[in-house]
Amino acid sequence: MRQMYWRFGGRHWFPHVPLAILLVFGAAWLLQAEIGRQWGQVMDQVLAGRRGLPPGALPPVLTGVGMLVMAFGLLFRSRLAWMMALLLSATAAAGMLLGPSTQGHLLFGYFVLMLAALAFAWRQFDRSSIAAGTLFALTSVILLVTYATFGTYYLGREFDPPVADVVTSFYFALVTMSTVGYGDITPQTSEAKLFVVSIVVLGVAAFATSLTAVIAPLVSRSLQRIVSRGDKRMKREDHFVIAGDTPLAVNTWRELARRGHRVTWLVRREPAAGTANDVDLVVGDPSSNEILKLAGAGKAQAVVAMMADDSENAFLVLAVRGLGSRARTVATVNDARHLERVRLVQPDLIIAPQVLGGELAAMVLTGETVSADFLMKRLLNPAGEDSAPPASTN
To answer: Is the dihedral of CA 296, 298, 303, 305 positive or negative?
Structure first.
């Protein structure tokens, strides 16, 4: 399975693309179940001042539209879009379970499976960006304005004076959401009053969460730069990038730094013991194009993949190639069974210290001669070179 995942470039499209497609399909099914193929007629009736959409259909319609928007966020592996997709799927499932829809049971089962698929893939959605935050903010505002406008329109007779057209409903929705409250239109019944309360609460919540979604990535990046070495990083050009927190990666970084070379250390998570102020550290997914650009992989002398997982080392080599970088790529192989698979990605150099250690132990125990040429050949495995064990030199 892992070999097929590599061969078909799974990391570029799985699971976010299939999940986005499934979410779009679920949204289309939900909208079709509520308004069928008559959506054009419904919109014409609403715009003409007639109530073409049953009031009970408004929440599922808004849920379906929200799913269509969040599907685009899933394509970018946005954590925010994943959370919204999870919430919307749960809302749709609850609505189908309690609602009178003729396809309720089928849709309920579909969205339960959608929830399970989203929950299973939660680790793949770990990106937060200004684009995703802006998408969330716009979606929240649009859905809330739609809910407030058409809700006011359908409850129009319960206001004083009565609201009889969509334009007046839109005006009242914006005035209420902004908490301005001119007082020219007031709710008269309990249902209308509760509806207005919901608009105010949702308006304040949408504004606060939208502002947080857009501003938080900017603030967190600024704080990270300030806290991490006071935003004084070295010039990431003509340097070495060491990826991984294995003992081999740490020792390689130390030896290069001791020799006076500029080295950037790329790790997935911040080291628990912390790092010295003079360490140029980049924290993030080593195979992410954004993180590799931040580490200066495109202008580096060499990018060295020394992570514990051989598949991650191979992915990193492919990612560096995808940047169009001229940097040499070095991959570490920790398991001899993965040596041929790593060679498929054609790194410039393969280092197999674990493989070498096993061979050396066997040669010493059996009394074979260990030469300097053998050590160099086995320690530095050029990509594409045969790795068959050497003949005995006894």
So the answer is: positive
Structure-token match 């207005």, residue found: 196
> How far is 9 from 17, CA to CA, in rounded Å?
12
Closest CA to 244 of 208, 213, 275, 269: 269
- In angstroms, the CA 304 to CA 241 distance is 6
**Parallel, antiparallel, or unpaired for β 380-381 and 240-243?**
unpaired
| Tens-digit pLDDT profile for residues 128-183 | 656 666 766 777 788 788 888 888 888 888 899 999 888 899 999 989 888 787 88
- Cα separation, 11 vs 263, whole angstroms: 27
DSSP state of 390: P
Q: Is the pLDDT of residue 365 over 70?
A: yes
Burial grade of 137 (CB within 10 A; 0-12, 13-18, 19 or more): buried
Task: Output the CA torsion sign for 77, 78, 83, 84.
Answer: negative
| pLDDT at 48 (0 to 100) | 57
DSSP tag of 128? -
* β-bridge partners, 78: 127
Determine contact, residues 92/30, Cβ cutoff 8 Å: yes
What architecture does CATH give domain 240-381?
3-Layer(aba) Sandwich (3.40)
* H-only helix segments in the chain: 2-7, 10-13, 16-35, 39-47, 58-75, 79-98, 104-120, 130-154, 166-177, 190-227, 247-258, 289-294, 310-322, 339-343, 353-366, 372-379
- For the entire predicted model, the pTM comes to 0.48
pLDDT in tens, 18-32: 999 999 999 888 888
List, in order, residues 6 or more apart from 26 with CB less than 8 Å away: 67, 89, 92, 107, 110, 111, 114
Dist. CA 79–CA 82, nearest whole Å: 5
Q: Residue 306 in contact with residue 283, Cβ under 8 Å? A: no
Distance CA 378, CA 385 (A): 10
8 Å CB contact between 118 and 19: yes
Q: 381 in helix, strand or coil? A: strand
Boundaries of every domain in the chain: 9-226, 240-381
